[in-house]
Amino acid sequence: MNSGKLQLKTLAILLISFVVILTAGCSGEQASSDEDTIKIGVLASLTGALEAYGKQTVDGFELGLEYATDGTNEIAGKKIEFIVEDTETKPDVAVKKATKLLEEDEVDFLVGSSSSGDTLAVLPLAEEYEKIMVVEPAVADSITGENWNKFIFRTGRNSSQDAVAGAAAIAEKDVTIATLAQDNAYGREGVAAFKEKAEELGATLVNEQYADPNSTDFTANIQTIINEKPDYLFIVWAGSNAPWKQLKDMKVEDQGIKISTAAQDIASLKTMDSLVGMSGFSIYYHTLPDNEVNDWLVEEHKKKFDGRIPDLFTAGGMTSAISIVEALKKTEGDNDVDTLISTMEGMEFDTPKGTMKFRPEDHQALQSLYAISLEEQNGVDHPVPVLIRELKMDETEPPVRNKQ
What we know:
four-stranded parallel sheet; 13 helices; Peripla_BP_I; Rossmann fold; 17 strands; Leu-bd; BCAA_transport; Substrate-binding domain-containing protein
């Protein structure tokens, strides 16, 4: 009897040991599977005011992975997966979603986001969890400035690059320029960078006007500028309450003052009928770059999206994906963060906008922008940016602001 009990007890122990070994084996297989996958978490505004930005970014990111991996979504034998989370353009939601991606999904990279406010809220998490965050398309200078940490790389341009490109497009010796901008960090940082570059090129800033970001009446600002009689009025503005119609109503250009500003995404271009004929700059429009990557993007986007052309944020999303894949190609799939950082610092990579380079000092991607004129074209429902000349990355390089 005792012998039987002993045999049963021994059998039970052996059975438990077998289950433990089997479970460990399965767990090992799962771990191995995870090790063979690179996970990327994409933060984007998929609802709310910036919904169009977020959806374009995600579409572009998916196309970028397809392009950079030749359709395999693999690199060095590892699968690449991406998980998209909606920040709702709310910083607290962005932090919650980023934390979920980092802790539950255990992503190797973060990408995003559509809003500078969301992005600034998430930056400390990249440092805390020691994961690279590729910033696209948020533009605030402080992202690669005072709030930067070594895990942050930005493929999107920053506000200062916009302003420097704006100056390169119109500023020269003996030209006088007035500015009109929103009275916030975006507007004041933009004007400061524009002024620095414009004066370097020999122009003189004769007046700076700042308006309430929520205002719809700019009469006093515009009249002050008219009284100054500058050669150009350069405008730094973001949002639907832009002063374009009032500038036309007050006949600014009829008084010999040329208007210049950024030609941004297609939605913005549809509000700029009154600016046809202006000289300014563009961040991206699908007909401006002349390279194989952009040709592929335009063709594949039309195939995938019923003949629609890619927009500004589509190209940006594609660029962010390419930058990650190119870094992983160079490390042969090694996702060790220190290895990736040293690889990406100074890295050059091809994008729909041509070659970009991550500046070692602050990881801001140096890139081309475009001096353009805004013209009407038959069959197009918005003014079209027409290339005057490409502004190369050395012309649009912004100041280093991270004090490293």
